[in-house]
TrEMBL record:
Residues 12-58 form the DUF1648 domain. The chain crosses the membrane at residues 7-28, 48-71, 92-115, 127-147. This is DUF1648 domain-containing protein. It holds the Pfam family DUF1648.
Length: 156
């Protein structure tokens, strides 16, 4: 049940992101920054229409991972036994759900940073924290669920 609530929450974040882009549309210049270097400086430019690419990719990833959640028996497991099968399936489903919703929020934050950068004339102070948070969070989620899976596997 909690997974459904988190799914709804992340879809609301995605919807609000699309609405935010639409609301900000008139404030955007004809050319906006779409790529940033590690210093947060724009090194790639495009039309405002490119702002809809990230939400489309995000929606596609969310949908694909939602379908993936239906087939935990097809995943590879490090230590799967009859005794821990239920736990391992629930663990991997929770991992996919957390990753899916984390990706949605991360991509929405990235879209917000790009819109803010475009509205501020290319200045971007939020890009690096969003990218570090996204990459670090992804590895953190993977590590957490991997350790959890291994610990349960050792007990059986």
């Amino acid at each position: 049940m909690m997974e459904k609530r988190v799914d709804v929450g992340s879809l609301l974040v995605l919807a609000f992101t699309v609405v935010y882009v639409i609301v900000m549309w008139k404030a955007l210049p004809d050319t906006i920054p779409i790529h940033f270097n590690l210093q947060g400086e724009s090194d790639g430019w495009g039309s405002p229409g490119t702002l809809f690419i990230l939400p489309l990719i995000t929606a596609g990833l969310w949908l694909g991972m939602t379908v993936l959640e239906k087939y935990p028996h097809t995943f590879n497991y490090l230590h799967l036994t009859r005794e821990n099968m239920r736990f391992q399936y629930e663990n991997i489903l929770m991992q996919v759900n957390v990753m899916k919703n984390f990706i949605v929020v991360s991509f929405c934050c990235l879209t917000w940073v790009i819109v803010q950068s475009a509205a501020d004339g290319g200045l971007n102070r939020g890009f690096l924290p969003v990218m570090i948070g996204g990459i670090g969070g992804t590895f953190g989620i993977i590590g957490f669920f991997l350790v959890r899976s291994l610990r349960k596997g050792e007990k059986t």
